[in-house]
Structure formats: structure tokens, C-alpha cells
Write a structure and sequence with these properties.
32% helix; 16 helices; seven-stranded antiparallel sheet; alpha+beta; 527 residues
Length: 527
């Protein structure tokens, strides 16, 4: 008699790996090859790390529209090699001033998007005009460029303009990403016209070479910003079209609050770490949670000999659980039921200057609504707020919600040596912390470190474990809490998508992107 029991999970019998790159002339890492190539082109034209990071960020608006874009928001850290201090750039989510809790009546049922808030009638906080926070990304990128860059915006925008005119690659990954969002994209005319065919996601040809999807008015908007300057987005023709299109969609963003918006520049949150300092983004993001994790982890006194073992993972999981308990109690964030959709960029230039930039629309395709006059998707940052009044993270006029972004730069002897970050919502902090420790503490080469199995602690309850980790790690973590073994794959997304660049020797930058982001790439300049 044949004895056969099917696996309880799908088995993917392959090995997935991304190559690392090293260069004396600088490295750019992002989730899309074309965007990284745009940043490298800027480095090779004489630009610095900030010029390259901004060029890459604008390029992502054309090649990764489900994760970030002109309608997004974010956080960044900038550490020029010539300066001992680093700066935190906060262009995170800001609610419109006219936003009120009573605009989001509850149905009494559970929510269905990224966060398990109670459901809002018609999901008004998840998509459509009322889900929009201010689009702060353009101001964030341009402020960085004016403060630390060497090139004018008109030049830095050229790669993004070229990519927007070419269009969005129509391959299997585009089909996968658009299919997830199609039920809501087709509710909005401009979104449906750009991203869908007869209400369905476009499918690449069965054979041959995939083509490209036209991106509506996005190329025109980028060219307008190159001619008129970024302030036009907040005070000029583009700003007026944003207010008009937002109002047509039921939104409440005003001309006055766009015109007065300014990103915040401040100091980083620094954590001493051996002979180094971990520099984290300040503000309402995951930086403070990672700082608490590292501080607790540091006090545990676990040695960094050999490779990460069961004892090491258990100590890290305990630290992360404790940090998240405090985050939940004091800040009011709540565990997601799905992944977040975010872009992260790391850059190191020839001088050793580094930039870590995380930017997002929040949900995949953000608020799902393309503004027809400008061709870009708006965020759904209002979903970060708890729709129940009277809570630490409740909806309110002009409020800033707690987010999950976590850019990091490590410095040693005053100079930046590691830049790291990730996409992936609430899972970002765990991924960034582990990858950072693999490289900084264990001195594991970046390519090997990026492919090591990880755990995820995204709250105070369940620990997710990469199925490749051994039973010794699983057993050690079961002593801490509930454990679930999961696959690390393209979809479902059970772990965040980190990338990292190190320049520990002070001369050569070495970087790698996330293996399970199909389009991602770390590319070197001057090669």
C-alpha cells in the first residue's frame, strides 16, 4: 500500500538569490532595477548620494507606482561623509486640517485592509478622497536636494521623465500587483484607464517581450516640475489641480495647507552599539521601537560568535516583543492583517556619504485613485489612524499618525559605514534590525546576510519563522510565544524587503537588494 500525505503548504522547489555589487564609486539599492540605474546615472554624472537618492525616488514613481510616488510621504536619513552628525528628514503623513472623526462612521464590523481597525462605512479611510493625507514626498525629496544635493531638480528629474514616458513594464509582476488592487482601482476612472484593461489587470504576452503601459499625465507632471520647480506642486498650477481633483473625489485637502507644508529637519535618534552608533529616524515611525529593541538587546549580553543561533534569535525576539508592547500601549498602533507597500532606497557615493530613504503610499496603490490632471496615485495615509475617537492614534485635524518606516545609518568613528532599510509595513523593523546585526555584529558579507533566514515579530503575540530555520530555533522561540513557520516568497509577503550597503573598510561600498523583490537591484557606479 502506498503511504502518501500531501504537504500542508505549497512547496517551491527552487533557490532564489540576488547578487551583491561592490564599487569604489558608489552603490544604489532599490526595489526596481531601472530606479537604481537612474541613481547610478546621477552618480556617474558627478552627483552625490543625495542627488542619486532623489533621482531614484522620483524614478520609482514611474516604475513602482503601487508602492510610492508623487502622492506619497516618508522619512529619510542623510549623513554626508564630511560631517560627524546626521540629519533626519521627516516628510511623514499629515492629515488634512478639515478631517474629522465624524466623517468616518463605523459599521460595527471588523475592518478588511492593512489594520484591524473597526470597519468604516464604505471603507472611506482605505480608498478614495477622504483617505488622502497630504502628499508630502515631493517636498521631502526636494528639500533634501536643496539642503545637501549638488544638482538642480531639473537635471535630477530627467531619468524619471524618461521612464514615465516609456511606461510601466507589463510583465508578470505587474500583473500580480495590479490584480490585487483591481477590485478597487476599477472604481476610479483615471486609475482604471491607466492600470486596467476592461476592468481587468493587463497580462503579458505568452511569449516574446512584454511591453509597457502608458502612465497618463505623469510624464507631463514630472516635466512641469522640472520647468517650474517643486514648489509648483504645493503653490502653483500642479497644486491647484491636486486640490480640484481631490475635491472631485470627496477629499478635503486645501490650497492653503499645501502651500504652507514644510518637511521637518532634525536630529536622529542615536543608539550606542559597541564602537559604533546606530542612527535612526526620529518621529512617529519605527525608529524609536528599533532603538528600544537594540537597547534591550544590548543589555542581554549575548555574544556574537560564529553565526546567529537559537539563543541569539530568542534574545532578539524577546527584545522585539517588549518594544512592541510599549509601542502598542503608548502609541496606539495596531498589528496589520496584511503587508504594507513601501519603497526603500539606500545610496552610498564615492566619498562615503550615505542616504537611507523610505517612502510609501501605505496600501498597495495607496488610495487607489489616480488624480486625472496629474497622473499620479494618492496615498491612503488616513488608514494609519484609528477611526475610533479618543485613542492615542485617532483621526484628527492636521494630526500625524504612527507609521512603520525605519531608515537606518550606522556610523563608526564619525563616518557612515552602513546604510539599511526595508519595505514591508509593520514587518520593516524586524527585517532591518536583523540584517543590520548580521552585517555589523557578525561581519557576515552583505550578500550572504541578505539571504539568511529571519524571524518576524510584528506585535506582542505571534512570532513568524522562516521555514528554513532549524527546529532548535523554533523550540527556543516557542518558549517565548506562539510560533508560525512560514515561507519567504514573493507572495504571500511574510517578511519585509530589506536592502543594505556597507563601506566598513572606508574605500569600497558593497550592497545587495532583497532576493524576493523580483525587480530589485543594487548597482554600482563607475563600473
Amino acid at each position: 500500500m502506498i503511504s502518501f500525505t500531501p504537504m500542508a503548504y505549497p512547496v517551491h522547489h527552487w533557490t532564489v538569490r540576488k547578487p551583491a555589487v561592490e564599487s569604489r564609486f558608489g552603490v544604489v539599492a532599490s526595489q526596481v532595477y531601472d530606479a537604481s540605474a537612474a541613481g547610478v546615472a546621477v552618480l556617474e554624472a558627478g552627483g552625490n548620494a543625495v542627488d542619486a537618492a532623489v533621482a531614484t525616488a522620483f524614478a520609482l514613481a514611474a516604475v513602482e507606482p503601487w508602492n510610492s510616488g508623487l502622492g506619497g510621504m516618508g522619512f529619510a536619513i542623510v549623513h554626508p561623509a564630511s560631517e560627524p552628525a546626521v540629519s533626519s528628514v521627516n516628510f511623514g503623513p499629515v492629515a488634512p486640517r478639515a478631517l474629522r472623526a465624524e466623517q468616518f462612521p463605523l459599521t460595527g464590523r471588523p475592518g478588511s485592509d492593512l489594520f484591524p481597525w473597526p470597519q468604516v462605512k464604505d471603507d472611506l479611510n482605505a480608498h478614495g478622497g477622504l483617505s488622502f493625507c497630504l502628499p508630502t514626498a515631493v517636498a521631502g525629496y526636494a528639500t533634501m536636494l536643496e539642503r545637501w544635493g549638488t544638482m538642480p531638480l531639473s537635471e535630477v528629474l530627467q531619468p524619471a521623465i524618461s521612464l514615465a514616458k516609456r511606461g510601466l513594464a507589463q510583465d508578470w509582476f505587474t500583473t500580480l500587483m495590479l490584480a490585487q488592487a483591481a477590485p478597487l482601482l476599477r472604481k476610479y476612472r483615471a486609475s482604471s484607464e491607466i492600470f486596467l484593461h476592461d476592468g481587468l489587470p493587463p497580462v503579458p504576452p505568452y511569449q516574446g517581450t512584454p511591453g509597457f503601459l502608458p502612465l497618463g499625465r505623469l510624464p507631463d507632471t514630472l516635466e512641469r516640475l522640472a520647468r517650474a520647480g517643486w514648489r509648483d506642486f504645493y503653490q502653483g498650477e500642479v497644486a491647484r489641480s491636486i486640490v480640484r481633483d481631490t475635491a472631485d473625489l470627496g477629499g478635503v485637502i486645501s490650497q492653503e495647507e499645501l502651500a504652507s507644508y514644510q518637511p521637518e529637519l532634525g536630529r536622529t535618534l542615536d543608539v550606542p552599539w559597541g564602537t559604533s552608533t546606530v542612527q535612526l529616524s526620529s518621529g512617529l515611525n519605527a525608529g524609536p521601537t528599533l532603538a528600544e529593541t537594540l537597547t534591550y538587546r544590548n543589555s542581554a549580553g549575548i555574544a556574537y560568535d560564529g553565526e546567529p543561533d537559537a539563543k541569539w534569535y530568542a534574545a532578539l525576539a524577546t527584545a522585539m516583543k517588549g518594544a512592541y508592547l510599549r509601542r502598542l500601549d503608548l502609541d496606539g498602533d495596531s498589528a496589520p492583517t496584511n503587508h504594507g507597500c513601501t519603497s526603500h532606497i539606500n545610496v552610498c557615493d564615492a566619498s562615503g556619504s550615505m542616504v537611507a530613504l523610505t517612502t510609501t503610499l501605505l496600501s498597495s496603490m495607496g488610495g487607489r485613485a489616480v488624480l486625472p490632471s496629474t497622473g499620479f496615485l494618492m496615498n491612503n495615509g488616513v488608514l494609519w489612524f484609528d477611526p475610533r475617537p479618543g485613542r492615542p492614534n485617532s483621526i484628527g485635524s492636521g494630526r500625524r499618525p504612527l507609521s512603520n518606516m525605519c531608515p537606518v545609518i550606522v556610523k563608526s568613528e564619525g563616518r557612515p559605514v552602513i546604510v539599511c532599510g526595508a519595505a514591508g509595513g509593520r514587518r520593516i523593523m524586524a527585517a532591518v534590525g536583523q540584517l543590520l546585526l548580521f552585517v555589523n555584529d557578525f561581519r557576515i558579507p552583505v550578500e550572504d546576510a541578505a539571504h539568511l533566514p529571519r524571524i518576524d515579530v510584528s506585535g506582542s503575540e505571534k512570532i513568524s519563522i522562516d521555514r528554513r530555520l532549524g527546529d532548535d530555533v523554533v523550540n527556543a522561540l516557542r518558549a517565548i510565544g506562539d510560533v508560525e513557520r512560514v515561507d519567504h516568497n514573493v507572495l504571500p509577503i511574510n517578511f519585509a524587503r530589506p536592502s543594505i550597503i556597507e563601506r566598513l573598510d572606508g574605500t569600497v561600498a558593497r550592497g545587495v537588494s532583497d532576493a524576493f523583490s523580483p525587480w530589485s537591484a543594487a548597482l554600482g557606479g563607475g563600473e
